[in-house]
Amino acid sequence: MTLRVHLKPAFGKLRLDAIGPKQIEAYKATKVAARKTPKTINNHLTVLRKLLHVAAEWGKLKSIPPIRWMKVPQPEFDFLTFEESDRLIAATEPSWRAMIVVALRAGLRLGELCALRWDDVDLVAGRLLVRQSVARGIVGTPKNGRMREIPLSAFTVEALKAHRRGKAKLVFAQHGRMNKKDECKWPLRRACRNAGLREVGWHALRHTFASQLAMKGVPLGSIQELLGHSTIEMTMRYAHLSPEVGRAAVSLLDGQGTYKAHGPELAPKAS
Predict the structure, then answer these.
(1) Residues in a beta bridge with 117
(2) Would you state the pLDDT for residue 257?
(3) Which of 38-52, 112-126, 129-143 has the highest mean pLDDT?
(4) Which comes out higher in pLDDT, residue 265 or 246?
(5) Among 24, 102, 188, 215, which has the minimal tally of Cβ within 10 Å of its Cβ?
(6) Hey, what CATH topology would domain 82-213 get?
(7) pLDDT at site 97
(8) Contact call for residues 68 and 116 (beta carbons, < 8 A)
């Protein structure tokens, strides 16, 4: 719909190399005048950038014009504490437990969880590759079109080992077929109720993964890579959860030490 209704009427008659910053800014101004929200306009620009990126890959375009994104207020999001996460896992039905563990400990989107294949999981090396996702019943690439690799914790590996059955192709499937998104909400709701928690959706589990990493002092750049965010701005919503990281880094100016991913590692004082 975005391509047919919005982008094609605006850019369809232009040569690819004629689409530049001026034309893109004019498109944004038109959509603002039409009272489209900044988020909606950014969604349009994301589709446009993807099309231009493909054209460049095919040799039809020498360079991709820069795109200035609309400023969008960061939406509020919910996430679980460490203790709430443990309660949720313990209260989940066995057949769904591994899926919730992977959502909490690897941060996959629901579409990525549903489309995850055993071929993309290496339990020996302790990692998985996010190569595909499902949206509206169609399996394609992940949201930003990029594959990403996620290391798995020992707990997550054990949960997946316990979950594996036979020679199924999909990691999380019901009766041999891919889970539908509408089906996935009920097991999570039951788990929340059994754990005595407020009702949360699958995306809150992804937020939980990122939020808990930030609270543990993991740099936002690393969180961005693990989540598969296309820009660091998307990851900055978690910055307020890691105030100790900046404080630890600045404290190095007052003494000895070397910055590490989880804060300063002070050199031993001379005796």
Answers:
(1) 170
(2) 60
(3) 112-126
(4) 246
(5) 215
(6) hpI Integrase; Chain A (1.10.443)
(7) 97
(8) no
**pLDDT for the residue 258:** 56
**Hey, what amino acid is at 213?**
L
Neighbours of 146 (CB within 10 A): 11
Q: Give per-residue pLDDT as tens, 4-15.
A: 899 999 999 999
Residue 86 gets the label, from left (phi > 0), alpha (psi -120 to 50) or beta, of: alpha
Look at the pTM and tell me if it is higher than 0.85.
Answer: no
The sign of the CA dihedral 196, 197, 198, 203 is negative
**Angle between helix 94-106 and 202-215 (nearest 10):** 50
- Whole-number average pLDDT of the chain: 88
Above 70 in pLDDT, residue 243?
no
